[in-house]
Amino acid sequence: MANLEITTSVITINYNGLKDTCELIESLPLEDKSIEVIVVDNASKEDEASIIASRYPQVKVIRSEQNLGFAGGNNLGIKAAQGKNLFFINNDVILKPQTSDIRHLISRLETDDKIGAVCPKIRFAWGDKPIQFAGYTTLSRYTMRNSSIGFGETDKGQYNIAHPTPYAHGAAMMVKREAIEKAGLMPECYFLYYEELDWSMMFTRAGYDIWYEPACTIYHKESQSTGQYSPLKTYYLTRNRLLFVKRNIQGLRRYITSTYLLLVVAPRDICKYILHRQFNLASATTKGIFNFHLSTFNFQLKK
User: Fold this and answer.
1) In this predicted model, what pLDDT tens digit does every residue of 73-91 receive, in sequence order?
2) What is the pTM of this model?
3) Which residues, 6 or more positions from 92, have their beta carbon under 8 angstroms from its beta carbon?
4) Are the C-beta atoms of residues 21 and 12 closer than 8 Å to each other?
5) How many Cβ atoms are within 10 Å of 248's Cβ, its own excluded?
6) Is 36 within 8 Å of 81 (Cβ atoms)?
7) Comparing C-alpha atoms, which of 278, 272, 247, 246 is closest to residue 261?
């Protein structure tokens, strides 16, 4: 039930990331009583939840005794949130007073009942702060490829016009509560990666649009918890790409896409990793494929 005083709930996940989470909290407008901040501690090794609660008594801290993954952690936050708008934001993101006013995101949501989610412009926090996200292109029909508009470009204002985007970006997305109530909670079957892409599809099927709003810009440190080329990331990207196809594509197109991913993309990646002596990444790719098929087989047995 939404609280009439709280219009926006900011939800972030902490997993062994105390420093980043504290920097994020300190960049938020904590003095604004219309905003509540919720930190879900996803079973950090140390009791970081208690430290955060002690440092920031105005922040609502939820401690999960097991790591529920990105979606599971955010769903805990959703269940505790009181706002009519929920702003999901990575803990390795920074807001700046001059450029990161989230009221622009709220205004965009309020312009049309059909808008269910909105994302800010996302720039990297390093160097000259190049663009990471200014909307997405649509996934290609069979190869499942798409791109982040503006990625790596210097921000010269070339993407300063708001527009619809087919998918939300998981690093920062504001969603109407009513859209979640209609579409459903974030899918927990992925654990890590692809959740926001699948959730975007759920919003679209529920009749909502997703927008990019550049009047608000946030700054992303990017993937410090999993690493750019870690076995963890490689495993989940491999497994979840196949899972996404299974959940969202039907008929002959699903068969063609799955075949392409299994017989072209996976062997190519494995060969590349072996040539570069990155045997741990080759192993992670193989495990991702195996576990996807194993989970599918077990599901069929249960039916």
Assistant:
1) 999 999 999 999 999 999 9
2) 0.92
3) 17, 20, 24, 220, 221, 222, 223, 224, 225
4) yes
5) 17
6) yes
7) 246
